Amino acid sequence: MKRYSLLVALLLCYGALMAQNTVRGRVSDDKGEPLVGVNITIKGTTQGAFTDGEGLFSIPAAPDAVLVASYIGFETVEIPVGNQSNIEITLSGAEVLDEVVVVGFGTQKKATLTGSVNQFKTEELTRRQVPSVSQLLQGIAPGVSVWQSSGKPGADGANIRIRGTGSIFSGTGPLVIVDGIVSSLDYLDPNSIESMTVLKDAASTSIYGVRGANGVILVKTKRGAGKGVKITYNNFFTQQEATNIPEKVSAVEHMELSNIAQQNNTGNPNAVVFPLALIDRYKTSPADNLEIFNNDWVGLLLTNSGLMQNHNVTLDAGSEKARLFTSVSYLDQQGLIQNNSFRRLDIRMNPDIQISKNLNLTGTFFFNQGTRIEPAGASPEFIIRQAIGLPATGPAKFGDGQYGDAGQSNRRNPLGQAEASGITTTIAPSIMGQAQLNYRPIKGVELSAAYAREQWTPNTKRFQKNFDIYVPNVANKTYDFSGRYPGTNALSETYSFNYRNTFLAQGSYQYTKNGNDAKLMLGYQTEEFSNRSLGASRSDFVNEDLDYLSLGGANRDNSGGGTETALIGYFGRLNYAFKDKYLLEVNGRYDGSSRFSQELDKQWAFFPSASAAWVFSQEGFLKDNAILEFGKIRGSWGTLGNQTLPDNYPFAATYTSGTNYYFNNITNSGFSLTEAVNPGITWENSTQKNIGLDLAFLKGRLNVTADYYIKEISDLLFRKPIPAYTGLSPAYLNLGSMENRGWELAITFRNRVGKLKYDITGLLADVQNKVTSLPGVPNLDEGLLRSEVGQPLRSYYGYKAVGYFQTVEEIAAAPTHFFTPKPGDIRYEDLNGDGKVNTDDRTFIGNSFPRYEYSFNLNLEYGIFDLNAFIQGVGQKENYISGTGAWPFFAADFIPSLLAVHKDYWTPSNPNAAFPRLLPAIGVNGTNSSFWVKNSAYIRLKNVNLGVRLPEKLADKLGVQRARLYVSGQNLFTQTEFWEGFDPEINNNTAEFYPLMKTYTIGLNVSFK
Q: The TonB-dependent receptor plug domain covers which part of the protein (predicted)?
């Protein structure tokens, strides 16, 4: 018996030894050089080891184990152990492998690209939790300017400009293509995106011809992997608050400063607007909401929760022959004021069917519906502007449904407008279906044909209701009904039906032999767009609970319209590579557009481009270099067009109905010509040149990309002023030219130190704009903004401020001004030295184009923890401030007050104050001048995301493939010298804006097997 027990024990020991053989090995790169610090793990466990200085490792592993070798900058490799005791592993550098990049109408290897292209995968796009995909582009691609002008729910998408502005009056935004179809970034849920590619130079965008001048953004959505069923669930919950809201003065400060302004204006030191006795009462008695008011309008109005939540479920199912990716997302975003929110439902289905060995069918179907809620009485922006501008002395609200008159003669109360003026509801459903057949008849030949139709039918219903205004009855200590605001209710409805049909057919042939690789692609595309719209309105509804147009008793009105456009394009591309060392690409597109005259032969144009690259690291003298892993220099040239205008028929005379005329003693309705016509108008032309350098060092851990470019835009579309007596708006003309010159730099370093894996990316870019010609026009004058040869487009134009007048003696000795100055007024420089300050002394005083845009992105991963930190900023930028947000006691349409910063005003004892002397109105001190041009450069902690993953063993027990819990913050900290209380990213600083959002988020990502 003892012998059998001993035998069993020996067998068990032997089995244990067999189960845990020590596997040794060496890891090297493509050139046989050892790799230090490669992470070797047993798949499905936390057991691991690292290679030493000679690339050697050892690790206990069972025969059925799988080794995973991963290293920053190299592809990850999996090796079954089996009976091996010594394993040689070779890792190839990921940066110079066959990474596929989506380009126009196809894909290419990253290493063989000859154009300026940036691509981002879904992992990079889902690190920030934002309601609009366009916001995700900020700071991730050099040369791509992205900024928000509003934080309003449903309207917080970012503005995007690639390599400077491309037009004066024509469109300046990039073309967005989603799965081959023209679309919008803000229709998308980030969890549905597989990759996003930004095409920046002519070599990359000329294949889009007349629509590619401002750059192109390509989005590829996810498709089924064909590996069984995988379900993922993603959510986040966010608390939003304004990044900046200016501080206001109190009721007492408002009254005291109002008196000082009146005294300065009249020269009477005893002049008052508010009696001193009243001010004393305010100082000694608390606000009672009857006689004494000290209302914080911002606090009263910004009372909505600001909560945002997003839920997304995806299904990846099927086999190699039939696959399906489905995504369903729901977003709910509350605003800062009452009755202000946005909800979005997004459903996407991407099926793939392998019909035969050489034929497959792919489909794309999506439904998207956004619902935006706003107060009917005024826009959220105007309500917030009133909150910032109104004095604290106005009565706000006395009780439920009892609103004060805010101290205004027109009785307009922003709190009533937000809470009780009715609702404006905009519902925008959109549906799209696309089918594509792909056929490979023989080796090297690919044919495809696709058809897509998209329909969207936005409709808006606005029912403005009256709300009750009350006034205090001090004697009875009650409130008396005073009337209703605005006095007349009104209902309006608008409806629009739109569709876009797209047909695309293309074919390609690839030939490879003896190091020669050539590919020819030809294609044909048509696109037609149609719009029909109608609207109706009525007022004077007896019952405000019934919102039907037929019940309105007065001001019956209706309108309607429509438009159609079409575009046809023939395009092609030829790629040639010799041993992936010498690269050449030629693109061309021949476009025809219905926006221009057929009779004058203006509808068609050809847009070519050519580019070449040399992978010099493949040359013999560098091939065995231990430092340089990859090196490529590239250059491109090409021409593109821009046809985006507000008018679809700028070449034709168009007439507008609704013009009345009196004839034969009666009033008749008719049509009128409202706009001058230019039959010879055509698209703008953009000629672009680019030279770039791509480098990889230290076995792919350090990557550098640099570009320099010139964009020359000619035949600029703009309106030359014509005499007012014509009664017509000016026609669009092709007149003038400008250029953008810029450079871009991107540096990325990836590494691993023990269990710590990290990568750091820094981006820096600059672009300078200049108008180069305006034939027959000395300048384009738009008041504050002026365009002139040799200057940036739409530069600020005005007087040069040189401080304040300090004394009467200084005024007497100064050049004569165009006004009668007093001490404390802004002094302007006599630039031409003629002893007079007048319009001849105006000059260029700044411009709003950002320069030296930069960002830093840090990713850290240690075990189950990960951290992402993103910093973004602008090194040089100027904003012109004016109106309610800048000038003391300014409001064009309500009682004005002051911000706290206005308390730093000029007096003889405060000669270097931030503001001129106080006056009841800004007057001459509000003249366009350099005084109001402020430095809006900034650096911002844009986002921080900290996550923890569920350990693999625990995940296996729970039946979960992967789970990650995270917290994040957006717009957390900003350093700037800009206007206190205002966000430097927003160019509009008149105080009529919706603040950008600072957010705090908690979220969960779960994948189920």
A: 110-216
Beta bridge partners of 671: 657
Q: Which amino acid is at 367?
A: F
Which of the pair, 107 or 358, is modelled with greater confidence? 358
Task: Give helix 276-284 / helix 251-266 axis angle, nearest 10°.
Answer: 160
Write the burial class of residue 666 (CB in 10 Å: 0-12 exposed, 13-18 middle, 19+ buried).
exposed
Task: Compute the distance between CA of residue 808 and CA of residue 854 in angstroms, rounded to an integer.
Answer: 48
CATH superfamily for domain 100-227: TonB-dependent receptor, plug domain (2.170.130.10)
Query: What pLDDT is stored for residue 14 in this prediction?
Result: 39
The two beta strands, 86-90 and 21-28, are: parallel
Question: Taking Cα atoms as reference points, which of 787, 931, 940 lies closest to residue 849?
Answer: 787
480 and 398 Cβ atoms separated by less than 8 Å: no
Task: Supply 209's token pair.
Answer: 């011809």
Identical fold at 14-92 and 100-227?
no
User: Rounded to whole angstroms, what are the CA distances from 188 to 50, 454, 529?
Assistant: 41, 15, 21
The predicted model gives 103-115 an average pLDDT of 89
Lay out the sheet containing 56-61: strands in order across. 56-61, 21-28, 86-90
Q: Flag whether pLDDT at 98 surpasses 70.
A: no
The alpha carbon dihedral of 976, 982, 985, 987 has a sign of negative
Q: What count of Cα atoms within 13 Å lies in the side-chain half-sphere of residue 415?
A: 25
Q: What is the 3-state secondary structure (H, E, C) of 459-518?
A: EEEEEECCEEEEEEECCCCEEEEEEEECCCCEEEEEEEEEEEEEEEEEEEEEEEECCEEE
* pTM recorded for the entire structure: 0.88
Q: Give the H or E element holding residue 815.
A: none
Cα–Cα dist 847/828, whole Å: 19
For 294, phi then psi, to 5°, come to -145, 65
Taking phi over 0 as left and psi of -120 to 50 as alpha, with beta for the rest, 640 belongs to: beta
CA 508 distance to own-chain centroid? 35
Residue-wise DSSP of 521-545: EEEEEEEEEEEEEEEEEEEEES-TT
Q: What is the DSSP letter of 441?
A: -
Q: What percent of the chain clears pLDDT 70, i.e. is strictly above it?
A: 96
For 88-97, 282-291, 567-576, 903-912, which range has the lowest pLDDT when averaged over its residues? Answer: 88-97
As a whole number, the mean pLDDT across the chain is 90
Residue 799: which of 837, 849, 848, 847 has the closest Cα? 837
Pick from 612, 757, 743: nearest CA to 73: 757
So where are the chain's domains?
A: 14-92, 100-227, 236-289+863-1008, 801-841
Q: Which residues are CB-neighbours of 36 under 8 A, at least 6 positions away?
A: 51, 52, 53, 55
Contact between 872 and 144 under an 8 Å Cβ cutoff? The reply is no
Contact yes or no for 653/677 (Cβ under 8 A) = yes
Q: Which CATH superfamily is domain 14-92 in?
A: Carboxypeptidase-like, regulatory domain (2.60.40.1120)
Q: Residue 460: pLDDT band by 50, 70, 90 thresholds?
A: very high
What band does 226 get if pLDDT is binned at 50, 70 and 90?
confident
Q: Mean of the pLDDT values across residues 238-266?
A: 95
* Assigned token pair, 28: 């090297």
Q: Is the peptide bond before 486 cis (omega within 30 degrees of 0)?
A: yes
CB distance 128 to 136 below 8 Å: yes
| Other beta carbons within 10 Å of 475 | 6
Burial of 146: CB neighbours in 10 Å, binned 0-12, 13-18, 19+ = buried
| Least trusted range by pLDDT, from 5-9, 258-262, 678-682, 914-918 | 5-9
